[in-house]
Amino acid sequence: MDTTDDAKKEEHLTSALGTKQFWDERYCLELKNFLEYNDEGEVWFGRSAENRLISYLTKAGTSLNARIIDLGCGNGSLLRRLKCKGFHCLTGVDYCADAITLATSLSKGETKNDEEASNNISFKVVDLLDPNMNLSLYDVVMDKGTWDAMSLSEDCDRRLLLYRTLISQILDDHGIFIIFSCNFTRDELCKRFGMLPLRYETEIAAEHSFTFGGKTGLTSTGVVFKKVVE
């Protein structure tokens, strides 16, 4: 295959990853695999990214009563792990109905003998770019790959504006927004999200890196922003 074909294939993939149809089909398959083989599906960015995020929240002394939401929660893996750490005001939202069905089933399966624990996570189907959708206030807003997928679209700038507005609206005063990305560096994330009322707080360091072609990089970048009150 020549380079022109490769470029067209890459362009198509990039475009597809930014569409709801792609993710609907993906989670339809993952839900089917769960029902047939009890397979929980893909953990986006791997356990290492989840470990970094959970470690940050723990070391920062985040209250177990903190209201935490995962934007684009997928199968709910991150929230289920936070639940195991004692956090109990957890919300997961995704615009794919099958993702929410999968996340709910996995969560209930882990807590089928503990009714109280099963109520610690609420999963909802939500389109994050719908200006009419209604969400509560949260102390911690998390994004693990959701902005990456949103950005793979021709209307990336419009999506960024709507997404940034949403985060500012649902994040309570002095709350934190944690974003993990495979496509953007810390500086690029700061350029897109580090403007009032959000302020850059810190980068969540990775335990491991990789070296290729004489350059060292990370598999994912984790950045924390804080909502400031003037």
From TrEMBL:
Example GO biological process: methylation
Keyword set includes Nucleus: no
Pfam families: Methyltransf_31
Residue ranges crossing the lipid bilayer per the database entry: none
Main location as per UniProt: cytoplasm
Domain (Methyltransferase) ranges: 65-190
Role: S-adenosyl-L-methionine-dependent protein-lysine N-methyltransferase that methylates elongation factor 1-alpha.
Protein name as catalogued: Protein-lysine N-methyltransferase
Organism: Syphacia muris
